[in-house]
């Protein structure tokens, strides 16, 4: 089963999140693709993701998760105490997604925007689609 994280390649918060995950994903369970890349666009179409969805997206096999659910499902597989965040799935989804939405809505204002996607190192490049 392939796990792919789709992210906004221009968002500093998203870029830092990808780097954070890579550092803590010792088993290399996750691959990455920008939502604007060809691979990202193909996955978005395949999983019928609404074009106006502005979210962190996790594709696990044939299932697709968005917003807080996607982020928490990723935490489950990270090394260290980050696994504990997976337990927040017990919080009702509307509450979790409200908080997620506030951060997502303000991410460019709070964290800035990049002119281009990051260029991964050769050893990490193989994890990008």
From TrEMBL:
InterPro entries membership: DCC1-like, DCC_oxidoreductase
Pfam families documented for this protein: DCC1-like
Highest rank taxon of the organism: Bacteria
One GO MF term: protein-disulfide reductase activity
Matches recorded under PANTHER family: DUF393 DOMAIN-CONTAINING PROTEIN (PTHR33639:SF2), THIOL-DISULFIDE OXIDOREDUCTASE DCC (PTHR33639)
Protein name: Thiol-disulfide oxidoreductase DCC family protein
Biological source species: Niallia endozanthoxylica
């Amino acid at each position: 089963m392939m796990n792919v994280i789709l992210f906004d390649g221009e968002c500093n918060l998203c870029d830092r999140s990808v780097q954070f995950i890579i550092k803590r994903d010792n088993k290399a369970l996750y691959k990455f693709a920008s939502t604007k890349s060809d691979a990202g666009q193909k996955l978005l179409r395949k999983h019928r993701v609404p074009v106006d969805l502005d979210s962190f997206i996790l594709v696990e096999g044939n299932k697709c998760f968005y917003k807080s659910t996607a982020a928490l499902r990723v935490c489950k597989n990270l090394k260290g105490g980050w696994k504990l965040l997976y337990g927040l799935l017990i919080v009702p989804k509307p509450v979790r997604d409200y908080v997620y939405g506030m951060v997502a809505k303000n991410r460019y204002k709070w964290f800035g925007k990049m002119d281009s996607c990051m260029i991964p190192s050769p050893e990490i490049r193989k994890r990008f689609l």
